[in-house]
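job 3f2a | input accepted
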Amino acid sequence: MKVHVEPQPLHEPLAGGTPGATVSVEPLIAGHVDFPEAMMVSPGGRLLTLKLVRALLRDKPPHVVPVPAFLIRHPSAGAILVDTGLHPSIATDGKENFGGMSNRFGKPTLEPGEDVPAQLRKLGLDPGEIPIVVMTHMHIDHTSAVSEFPKSTFVLSQTEWDDAATGSGPTMKGYRRPHFDYAFDYRTVDFDRGNVDSYTSFGRTFDLFGDGSIRLAYTPGHSAGHISVVAHLAQRDFVIGGDAMYVLAQLEGDAALPPRPFDAHNLRRSLQELRLFHDQFPDAVVTPGHDPEFYSRIAKRYE
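job 3f2a | predicted structure (303 res):
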């Protein structure tokens, strides 16, 4: 079933930008899922499908990975959230939010007070007053808590919306439409239109506020219309890579890519853009999607 809401196109930067603005970024770990390592880093070789099935069906050992979200503070546009983390209800029972099959295999876990709305309150922010939520993509572990931000404007790529909301086989692609089938304000960026420009190694980016503080970089492949977010700090950039790579070793070329991306060719191209950026700007922070070791040492705030 397709979703009932229609998004609005976003062709011009959002209001609130300030020339020369820089931002701060606060990573938030909003739950964990059990995701087999073989699904993140391809084991390769013969009988790959059999290896993946075995990885999904095994009981132990678990491979628990973090589910990150990010709070960006802009001096004039306010607080911007990137992805939503796991829904608060998962702290007691994940079946309703994740669905039976995804709950069984993904085993989502969330400590009380670990959900993004609770963490925002601890930081002095009202979750109901977050003006912008940027979605790197619409997979289940990223959209789980969309319902908790009814007053926000959600920004994502047009290609991602089309596949997540109206494409065939959503469940097999990692989407759960009840997560975002709400009459919310969705804005979609078409990266084939005007007002899309390159930025360093990224071929197609959209300047969210028109001031260079936050750019959405088109990095498809993991999903149909995946984007990364380039936040401009005072002295360097902070790149939220989303799931363009699961672990940092994939960015650095030391680990194989995932075995079943949406589009392997586009994933390699997108990852190459991220690698070139990483090479050109070694002081910049580039985040992987679900790397336990990376997030165990990440700072609380970058500015």
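job 3f2a | The chain has one domain: 8-296.
job 3f2a | closed
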